[in-house]
Structures are given as structure tokens and as C-alpha cells.
Q: What sequence folds into this?
């Protein structure tokens, strides 16, 4: 007997009501059954968004208080089938109103079946459907769904299947080959041929840090296999478009990261495609071969999972959705204008820390990957930021660039979430909430002085041209320079430093001239060669808006601090900054500057190593009687035998009574008659003298070193009088 409802034919079950209706079409969503008292959810595999379809599954004539498992979707008749634990245990048919009807099945053992799916064979005119259920030790049973479903149906045990002992939690039939696939909890993939009663181990899938397959399994029309893990919420995807598996080894990648659950079982119409159906899914932008499109399990976020448009998590000012199902869709979509949340503050140079500023719409969590080897993918070894807690607004983050990074053009991927993910997300796959932003970046090889993780210390005496107290703590700086290199050319510079001590009554600025002088040559960068608009400069991680390139100079002079006193905070009870006993706990002042060149410059002609760091007088402040009426900026102190800049007033070399013995004609600058300097470079982080302690008393071998021009006592800085130095100066 058959009844017709609303133009559709449905098989009458016992008991059957006039409300029993099949699903209207082959749905794209997956069905997910959860909880001890069966609830049915619809799952968008693209975004992992769950929708409650039925808070409680019901029978027509009885209440339901038990779970339903082993569900499968029969696209021949458009019904779901499952196994109900409610006494008497039975196979049930589930209609589009989510009402269950029992089938009268004999031949099943008295056990609970939690693994099941529907196999549909034949062409459209001659389709046949069978429901298969499996339990280890009992085996795999076939239930024919092609006859009168109101009659008694005898389940058939597949021979030898009771001996398979597969530790599986669900399986799914391939829509073309009709082979059955399942994944054990350890990632072992199995291929089952129900026609031959055989089970075949294929491979152990690499599922990364996930804990296995403890959940639903699905197929789509393209032969893509999906399996989930209840404990992590992750849905993995395996390309099984070639079935049976012959001549290749399948691999798994995370397709979607959804909510975790205590248990679930799933089903899906295997001849439906998986496609973007929600307008609030944001994709990345990195081009092929990066995994960006849906068909490549690309990174994507359903940024508005509640569809309210409020309390969204994203980067920058905006977020919007794209429809990028295929790589062709990716090509046809321009770069996403809403990718506006990440600013690259400093150059990304080999072996260096690079600063980025990330703007977040709300308190959230950040992940970031950089394709250092430029192979067109983001590996887990290239994950540089892992669930970093962001505050609403701007956040400054340092990224450590590997010393072996390949120089050139590459991409970075940033993903922000609300932090509710059960396990760490990867560079691919879908996530509920948040946003993904991809950025093209340039990485540089580098020549770092003194080393990638090292500093030199610069120490200045600001009483020049007079000796003063000669304590070398008026300005103390930890300092490092980097040449940014492409091929055999320098394309820019990066200078990093820390203001370690200020023991000066005078106000001094700190600057660097891009010059290197050797015994044979002087290499200099001119102001006109600097790409001034793209200089990026930070102090304590904060962007500085004014240009640091000193105006009206022929040579490139970068002003790091017009007045060091403007950037320091004295410790309570201290007169100076980190130069007195028990006055050494205030944080150092950090600075970093990336200086791009307009055009690449050959390495042989580009200055490097230390360059020319110096101090100068700050405008508007007294700096000695000899400077009264003069421009304070015209006063400078450089390292011994380094010529001053074009801004220097050379008449200062002739101040009456001065201790300076500069001989310009002989290129002997900034030294006393005995060869003692007013500025020194120490090849390490150094313990500078306490306020008022002459350096020759704090370091008894320094005078010998300086007067011999470094020929004697080269390790002078290792011999010091402990009570005379700032012991914590290196911290």
C-alpha cells in the first residue's frame, strides 16, 4: 500500500500518520544527532554552524526518552534512518517533521548499534537502498529498504564481519563507488566492500594534534570524505574522489573547527555538494597554491554565527563575507578591503624581531602563520603566534623571524577568534566566529651588527670638550644595526636600541648618521636616497608620527630622540635614570626604526656595521657657557676619530681651555691629548659606572685600552670595581 502526500510518494510504516513527509530535497547540510535524549541538529559543514532542527525527536504514539544513533540519509526516499535505544530497541525512520516511526526488523542481535549509513545503488530509475549497521564483535548487518516497510524485514549479517573488530564510531558510503569508509580513533582509515564482505586498511591519517575520530562521518557528491571528533569539535576532510583507493595515499586536513560535544552521530545526503550558503563567511586572500578556497579547505570564519550583527570578533575596522568555493572564485575576487587589522611596523628581516600592531574589535585571541620558506603553504612549524590574548584596540606583538628565512615576497595569515575553540586551530579550515586576514609581505636577508641576539653598548660623556666627571653614563644605549638585503644589494636599514641610562644634567639628543668609515673608504647614504614616507619608527612599541629624517641635510641623519629626558621616568628618590645605586629598576626605553631606500644599493657601496651613532645638544636647554648664543644642535659627540656631521660647528674644536685635542687635518677627532675618548662602544651589554665615578676608576684597565687605541687590554670591560658600577644595568 502506498499513500501520496503533497505530490510526493512515501512508504507507509507502522504506525504511520498522514503527517509523515520526506525531506523536500537532498539537503546540503549534515544531520547531527546528539544527547542521551535524541536531539537533531543541522550542521553547515562550511562553517560548522549548528542549527537545532528538533529539540526532541518524537514517536507518533509515545514519548521518546532515549538516544538515536547509527543514522543515515536515504536519498532514494529522502528519509533519515537510525537505531533507537528506546525499548523495544528498533530501527526507526525519521521524516521531515522529525517524527520517528519504528520498522519491524528481525535478525538483529540484542545490542546497541551506533555505527550506520545508507547505501543507494543503481541508476535513478532502478535505485535500491540498504541500511547498514555495525557493532564490533557482532558485525555488519544489512537491512533492505526496498520492499514494503510495514512488513517484517530480516536483517542479514555479512559473513566474517564479526571478526573485523573495527574501533569505529561512524562510517559513510562513497556516492560513486558504494564502498564504505571509516576512521578509527587513532586515524586508521578503512575501506569496506559490502559486496565482497571485506575490510581493508588503507593508511593511518595524520590528524596533527587532534585526539582522533570520535564522531560522525559524511561524504559529498565529489567524493570528499569528512569525519569529526566530538572532543575537539574538528571536522577533518579526506580526498577520496578516486575510489577504491589505488595508487595514492589519502591525507587528512582540518576542514572546520566547530563546537565539541559529549557524543554525536551524523548523516548526510551523499549526492549533495558542500558549498557556501551563508553570506557572513569571511575567507582569506592568499592566492594559489595557498589553501584558501573552500575546495582546498581554506581558512574561513563565520563571523556572525548568531546572525545578529552584534558582538562580532574581527580585526581592524570592518569584516565582510565572500563566496570562494573554488580556486576560480578566488581568482575572480579582489583582495579583501576589510583586511585592515594588521600593521607591519618594522622590517621582516632574518634573525630579527619584527613588530606588528594588531587592532581588535574586542578582547579576543590571535593566531598567525608566516610562509618563511615561500613554498605556498602555512605549516605548523611556521605558526608564530598561538592563541595570543588581544585587548580591544591596538596590540603590539613581536614576531621572531627565523635566521634562515628566505628573502623575497611571501604571505602571512592572521586568524582571530573568541577563544572558545576546544583545541588550537590551524592555518586552514572553518571556525565559528572571528575573521581571517591574509597579507602579502616582504622578507629580507640581513647582515646584523653585532649579531642577531646581541647588543653593543654605546656610552657618552656630555661635558665635551671638557673632561667633566668622565663617568660615561650621561647617555648609555644598547644598540644593534641591520642591513636589509635582497640578492647582492642593500634595500634598507633597521636600527634597534634600548636607552639604558641617563646620568646627565644637560639635555642630549641621540641620532645615527648612515655612514661607515674604514681606513680606506667612507660609504654614506644621502638623504635623497631615503624613502622618507615609508620610514617606520617606534619608541616603546608606539609609532612615532613625525619624520625622523633630519631636514636640510645632504647626508642621511636619523633623529631617534630630540631629548632623551623626554622619554624617561626617574625612579622615586633618584636624580637620574638608572645611573645611581638602587636606581636601576625602571624599564629601559626601547626604540626601533626601519629605513627603506628608494633604490637598492650595492653591498660594496653601502655602509654597514655600527654606522655613526652620536649625541647632540637639545634645543632650548643650557649646555655650557661656550654654547651660549650658539645653536645647541651644532654641538655633537661622536666615537673617537669619527668626523662630526655637516650640522656641527667646527669652531667648537677651538674652545679655550678645552681638554679636546682634535686634529682635523689628521682625522683625529673627539679625543684628549692622551687619546681618551668622549664616546665608547663596548661589544656587549655593559655595566656602566655609577654617577660621578670616573670610568678609569670603575674600570682600571680602560685607560690602557683607550690610550693604546685598543691595542692593549682589549677585554678591559671584564675587570671592574663592583661597588662603582650599576650592577643591574644589564637587566
A:
Amino acid at each position: 500500500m502506498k499513500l501520496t502526500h503533497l505530490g510526493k510518494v512515501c512508504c507507509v510504516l507502522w504506525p504511520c500518520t498522514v503527517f509523515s513527509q520526506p525531506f523536500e530535497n537532498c539537503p546540503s547540510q549534515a544531520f547531527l544527532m546528539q544527547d542521551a535524549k535524541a536531539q537533531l541538529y543541522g550542521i553547515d559543514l562550511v562553517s560548522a554552524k549548528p542549527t537545532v532542527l528538533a529539540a526532541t525527536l518524537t514517536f507518533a504514539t509515545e514519548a521518546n526518552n532515549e538516544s538515536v544513533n547509527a543514522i543515515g540519509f536515504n536519498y532514494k526516499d529522502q528519509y533519515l534512518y537510525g537505531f533507537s535505544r528506546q525499548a523495544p530497541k528498533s530501527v526507526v525512520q525519521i521524516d521531515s517533521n522529525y517524527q520517528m516511526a519504528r520498522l519491524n526488523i528481525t535478525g538483529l542481535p540484542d545490542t546497541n548499534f551506533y555505527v550506520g549509513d545508507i547505501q543507494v545503488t543503481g541508476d535513478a530509475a532502478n535505485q535500491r537502498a540498504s541500511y547498514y549497521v555495525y557493532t564490533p564483535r557482532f558485525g555488519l548487518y544489512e537491512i533492505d529498504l526496498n520492499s514494503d516497510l510495514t512488513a517484517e524485514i530480516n536483517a542479514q549479517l555479512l559473513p566474517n564481519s564479526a571478526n573485523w573488530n573495527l574501533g569505529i564510531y561512524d562510517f559513510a558510503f562513497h556516492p560513486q563507488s558504494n564502498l564504505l569508509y571509516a576512521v578509527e580513533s587513532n586515524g586508521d582509515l578503512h575501506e569496506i566492500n559490502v559486496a565482497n564482505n571485506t575490510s581493508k586498511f588503507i593508511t593511518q591519517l595524520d590528524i596533527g594534534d587532534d585526539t582522533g575520530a570520535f564522531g560522525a562521518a559524511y561524504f559529498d557528491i565529489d567524493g570528499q570524505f569528512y569525519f569529526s571528533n566530538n572532543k575537539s569539535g574538528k571536522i577533518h576532510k579526506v580526498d577520496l574522489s578516486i575510489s577504491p583507493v589505488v595508487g595514492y595515499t589519502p591525507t587528512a586536513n582540518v576542514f572546520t573547527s566547530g563546537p565539541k560535544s559529549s557524543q554525536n552521530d551524523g548523516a548526510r545526503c551523499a549526492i549533495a555538494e558542500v558549498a557556501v550558503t551563508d553570506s557572513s563567511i569571511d575567507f582569506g586572500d592568499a592566492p594559489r597554491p595557498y589553501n584558501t578556497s573552500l575546495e582546498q579547505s581554506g581558512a574561513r570564519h563565520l563571523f556572525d554565527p548568531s546572525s545578529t550583527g552584534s558582538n562580532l570578533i574581527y580585526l581592524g575596522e570592518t569584516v565582510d563575507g565572500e563566496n570562494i568555493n573554488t580556486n576560480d572564485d578566488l581568482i575572480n575576487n579582489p583582495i579583501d578591503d576589510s583586511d585592515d587589522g594588521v600593521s607591519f611596523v618594522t622590517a621582516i628581516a632574518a634573525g630579527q624581531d619584527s613588530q606588528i600592531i594588531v587592532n581588535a574589535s574586542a578582547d579576543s585571541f590571535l593566531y598567525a602563520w608566516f610562509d618563511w620558506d615561500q613554498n605556498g603553504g602555512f605549516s605548523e612549524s611556521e605558526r608564530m603566534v598561538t592563541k595570543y590574548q588581544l585587548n580591544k584596540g591596538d596590540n603590539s606583538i613581536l614576531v621572531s623571524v627565523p635566521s634562515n628565512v628566505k628573502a623575497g615576497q611571501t604571505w602571512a595569515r592572521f586568524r582571530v577568534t573568541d577563544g572558545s575553540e576546544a583545541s588550537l586551530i590551524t592555518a586552514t579550515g572553518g571556525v565559528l566566529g572571528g575573521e581571517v586576514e591574509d597579507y602579502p609581505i616582504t622578507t629580507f636577508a640581513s647582515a646584523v651588527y653585532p649579531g642577531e641576539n646581541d647588543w653593543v653598548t654605546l656610552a657618552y660623556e656630555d661635558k665635551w670638550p671638557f673632561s667633566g666627571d668622565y663617568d660615561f653614563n650621561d647617555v648609555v644605549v644598547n644598540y644593534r644595526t641591520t642591513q636589509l638585503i635582497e640578492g647582492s644589494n642593500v634595500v634598507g636599514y633597521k636600527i634597534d636600541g634600548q636607552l639604558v641610562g641617563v646620568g646627565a644634567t644637560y639635555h642630549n639628543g641621540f641620532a645615527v648618521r648612515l655612514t661607515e668609515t674604514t681606513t680606506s673608504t667612507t660609504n654614506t647614504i644621502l638623504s635623497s636616497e631615503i624613502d622618507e614616507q615609508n620610514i617606520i619608527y617606534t619608541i616603546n612599541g608606539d609609532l612615532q608620527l613625525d619624520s625622523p629624517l633630519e631636514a636640510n641635510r645632504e647626508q642621511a641623519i636619523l633623529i631617534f630622540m630630540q631629548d632623551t629626558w623626554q622619554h624617561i621616568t626617574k625612579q622615586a628618590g633618584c636624580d637620574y635614570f638608572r645611573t645611581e645605586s638602587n636606581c636601576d629598576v625602571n624599564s629601559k626605553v626601547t626604540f626601533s626604526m626601519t629605513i627603506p631606500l628608494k633604490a637598492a644599493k650595492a653591498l660594496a657601496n653601502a655602509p654597514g656595521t655600527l654606522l655613526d651613532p652620536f649625541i647632540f645638544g637639545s634645543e632650548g636647554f643650557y649646555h655650557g657657557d661656550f654654547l651660549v648664543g650658539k645653536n645647541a644642535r651644532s654641538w655633537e659627540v661622536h666615537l673617537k676619530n669619527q668626523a662630526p656631521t655637516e650640522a656641527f660647528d667646527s669652531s667648537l674644536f677651538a674652545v679655550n681651555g678645552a681638554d679636546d685635542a682634535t686634529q682635523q687635518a689628521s682625522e683625529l677627532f673627539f679625543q684628549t691629548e692622551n687619546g681618551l675618548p668622549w664616546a665608547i662602544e663596548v661589544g656587549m651589554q655593559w655595566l656602566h659606572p655609577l654617577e660621578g665615578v670616573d670610568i678609569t676608576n670603575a674600570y682600571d684597565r680602560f685607560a690602557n685600552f683607550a690610550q693604546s687605541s685598543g691595542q692593549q687590554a682589549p677585554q678591559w670591560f671584564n675587570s671592574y670595581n663592583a661597588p662603582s658600577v650599576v650592577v643591574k644595568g644589564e637587566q
